[in-house]
Amino acid sequence: MSSRPIRFRRRAQAEADQLEEPATEAAALAKKLGLDPYPVNYWIVGHDEMNQLIAYGGFQRRYPHWRWGMTYDRQQKQDQFGMGKAFEIVNNDDPSHAFLQESNSLADQKAVITHVEGHADFFKNNNWFSRFSGDQELDAAAMLERHGETIQGYVDDPDIDRDDVERFIDAVLCLEDTIDQHRPVDVDPDTERTQPTDLRDQLDQLDLSDDVQQQVFDQEWLDELAESEAASASIDHPRTDVLGFLRDHATTYDHEEDEAVSMESWQLDILDTLRREAYYFAPQKMTKVMNEGWASIVESLMMSDEGFADADEFITYADHQSRVLGSPGLNPYKLGKELWEYVENSANRREVADKLLRVEGITWQNFHAEIDFEHVRALLEPDPRIDAISSDTVEQLTSLPGDDPRIDWEMLDRALSNPETINIDRYPWKVLTYEGLAERHFSLVQPQHRGFLEQIRRSELQEHARYLFDDTRYDTVEDAIDDVDKTAGWDRMREVRESHNDVTFIDEFLTQEFVSENNYFTYEYTQTTEDYRVASTDYQDVKQKLLLQFTNFGKPTIAVFDDNFKNRGELLLGHRYNGIALDIQQATAVLERMHDLWGRPVNLMTITKTYEEHEVEVARRRNREPEPTETGVRLRYDGHEVTRSELDKDLTDRIRAADIDYDTKPDEWLA
């Protein structure tokens, strides 16, 4: 990192002193809200330092490579020309390190701090992140610094050509996402592969004479059978951790000798290092929507609902939030925040409906006719003594029962006996517990969600009624609402936070109700008019398009199918075709890099789409979409040229994904 003039360091120190209290109180409120974040170290940095950190993925030390300079240059231009502003960057580490840009306003810095607390909680408690560290303590900064020093050592080694090191790193980075992100980094998937029983071994166990074996079984046929079954077993269990496969086989291409040779120790070390880093960063790619949405929810609750933004900062904060949530394109902050709100609202609605269905005379059939939803919302409003806490009203909390779980009685006693120790007007949440805060912020009474309860479908009510196992009943609606667990939504959110990634999160919680309420739709490119048009507002179509964006980091899934293709030592890779064709030019370039790592010819199976000009013209005249022709092809690179051949039907069927169709083109376009 670059050194900075003293005057700028003093300015950063002054700003850090100003942010000490918000950082301390944000961490304390996070605990009250039921969060359990990593401790966070905050750093104030300038524009140039921030751009360096973003280029390095949030860390101060990485291995030497030109990619960092390219990323830095892009980020610097975005910052310079107003194409996007970086408010902060935080890394997944224990403790986490958050870097705040010095030019941010105080309102921006507070927003960043509350946002970071959400990230630190997600890093610590989402199971996909723990798959990397396991039971060991996480120290990512030290790990990445060690990696950087190791690779720098190879670059500086006079016995190793620097260009060879850079070329090798380039080749590995082309494949950095070809890992099995659903497994821990040290699990060997090859242990799950079972080789077929060799018929020749079985015959030997029968102790048959040579004459009998020769009369019944042809030796050449037995050899061919064993080879074909072994090849079939490999193809039936492709390996998705391509980097792990290459590490285990440890061969590379020698450009001078024009042949495959064993990897040198430095190559193995670099390959293993970069693979480990790919596994470290994989959970962040797998949970981008969840993680950013979770942090945005925490930020909004602290800044808006609990008043971390002062009255004179609120407009600035509102502008900050609108810029983040209003960014164009597929915005993970907006999508994530809306989905988390839907999870919370759905859990709270289920809890309220569960209680109301137990009221005498209320059934799922007459629910909408009998329930006065305005009255129910009024009953769900928080106790005024909890909702409006100030230095003038805090004493009213003493009128509540002494065992009321909503009140932090120890803090309340301090606030009343030593009011100078707790600024109740600034931090009223200090005298509340998790239960008290859940009531204070119960989602179904928030203005933006007040119509959510009555939107419940009859089918959902029928399902609730079917699973009312206990016999608890209520005489009145008032009694039922009084028994509602106001923590239901937050409890459910924490459960989901622990186990899901973006793919499972979207698959489970994106419903037609969510799509309609938030105005999501799909669009497709039409061959007939050569432009993009609105295709569908059906939630299944929207879900499929989103899942395409997030499955395997939104990149093609490539797996190793055979390491001895046609018994020639060639590598056979397969593209898991899901209706989206590969960019053949890019695929060819990656094959060339793959050849450098394998050392022998590399094959790639895929399926291409073509459109006949005549078919396109006929479709245009009839106002419909042309049907593409799908053809299985095998690309082969032997170190000199790429050749293309038709793929066997059996192999074409093997790489075609079953029951997945990302094409949402309708019979008639919506717009």
Automatic annotation (TrEMBL):
Domain SpoVR protein-like N-terminal: 15-354, 482-554
Domain annotation SpoVR-like C-terminal: ranges: 556-607
Family annotation (InterPro entries): Spore_V_R, SpoVR-like_C, SpoVR_N
Matching PANTHER family: STAGE V SPORULATION PROTEIN R
Protein name per UniProt: SpoVR family protein
